[in-house]
Design a protein that fits this description.
The protein has 94 residues and is mainly alpha-helical. The chain is built from 6 helices and no strands. The longest helix is centred in the middle third of the chain and has 14 residues. The N and C termini lie close together (6 Å).
């Protein structure tokens, strides 16, 4: 799946079939469903999940918690817009 296809799927009623939980989380985030996005990712313990978790807390405005998760992901909080980080994460997963 290409980024454009994923992005165009967001207005639909359900995430594209067969995508990872990481992408499902980001799909729900793009729909404005932060709680569902967070629920999907919060119990995963790998670096990719930590990056998404960090992004979600940054979006929420909980910067201290976001920075904790960025550290677990081996990253630093970016200075880019949230929309740019979302695109970066999605593209890295596709």
């Amino acid at each position: 799946m290409k980024f454009e296809e994923f992005n165009h799927s967001v207005p639909g009623p359900t995430p594209p079939p067969g995508i990872s939980d990481y992408l499902r989380s980001l799909w729900y985030d793009a729909k404005g469903d932060w709680n569902n996005a967070h629920e999907i990712i919060q119990d995963r313990e790998d670096k990719t999940a930590a990056w998404i978790h960090a992004f979600l807390h940054r979006k929420e405005g909980d910067i201290a918690n976001a920075d904790y998760w960025y550290t677990k992901a081996g990253k630093t909080r970016p200075g880019t817009a949230l929309e740019e980080e979302w695109k970066e994460i999605v593209k890295s997963l596709l």
